[in-house]
Amino acid sequence: MLGMLAASLGGGMETTSAAAAAAPQEISITAIDGLRIGNAQDTEAKTGVTALVFPRGARAGVDISGGGPASRETPVLSPTTAATPVNAIVLAGGSAYGLEAGSGAMRYLEEQGIGYDTGFALVPIVCQSDIYDLSYGSASVRPDGAMGYAACRDAMERNRPQQGSVGAGTGATVGKICGMERSMKSGLGIYAVQLGNLKLAAVVCVNALGDVYDYRNGQKIAGLLQADRKGFADTRQELYKIASPVDMFQRNNTTIGAIITNGDFNKAELTKIASMTRNAYARCINPVGTLADGDTIYAASCGQVKADLNMAGTLAADVMAEAIRRAIENSKMPDGDYLAACRKPGK
What we know:
CATH class: Alpha Beta
Largest sheet: 10 strands, mixed
CATH topology: L-amino peptidase D-ALA esterase/amidase
Shape: globular
Number of helices: 6
Order of helices and strands: EEEEEHEEEHEEEEEEHEHEEHH
Strand content: 25-35%
Number of domains: 1
Distance between the termini: 43 Å
Number of strands: 17
Helix content: 10-25%
Structural class: alpha+beta
CATH architecture: 4-Layer Sandwich
Mean pLDDT: 90
Low-confidence stretches: 1-14
């Protein structure tokens, strides 16, 4: 999927050679040692959880560009805080209600002996971001501790990557600025590559305010539909019609994702990689990063491969763009089935 990439990588015991790094090759996300991925969902209520578990811990950073994030423990990823290993990144539905899933993730990890040893107890470090999916399916059923526990257990016992309307993507939708009746189903996307010894993957849940475009050719692939649902409309044009601030779309959207690599990067460098990955959001989603979104990107490292930061950040954006495309491609469903689960305000 990705074109030829000229890259220069640094030295080290596991250094990637420039000759071997000419073209990224697709791999399974499960090929990244130190990462396990799992899901849990309520298919009737249309909500779920995706857990990225790091049994041996991971270094991580975060970039938050949206104006309405629902999150937990993101301050621990600041380069100015202690270098505490992260044990899981949880992506979920339910808006702020869904943050309860993180407690279930902590409970499962503690039972498995995974966490930061304080000398008196293990404290699993779980970072989390949620999408707003309360307008699709049930608004009263949200990810809870049991679902977070189940997603982590699925990761540890099965480690089976899935895409589309699964996990955090179960209730993901796009194109809601004119109401759910003109929106489309979206979901969870995954893409991973290897470049020499460097492995890098993207996991993303696309629930954006903006329309979604194929980064390869610029064609719109999801978003706001015309009233008869027979063609695309333009979210930007609808946004331009709003003459004064309104609350209707506040925090109803969010694209949340994570980059995972075996590259040897510290928290500050991973924060930079996360911010460079934001270029994928700009290439694929328009508008993006609005006050009506909670757009967030994590970047985590669970390896020691020496690699150039600029190359890794550039590759991360390319890989995330493909993951966004796959989130849409793997979430297609018949209009009748989709509309049956869409809710109207107050109902």
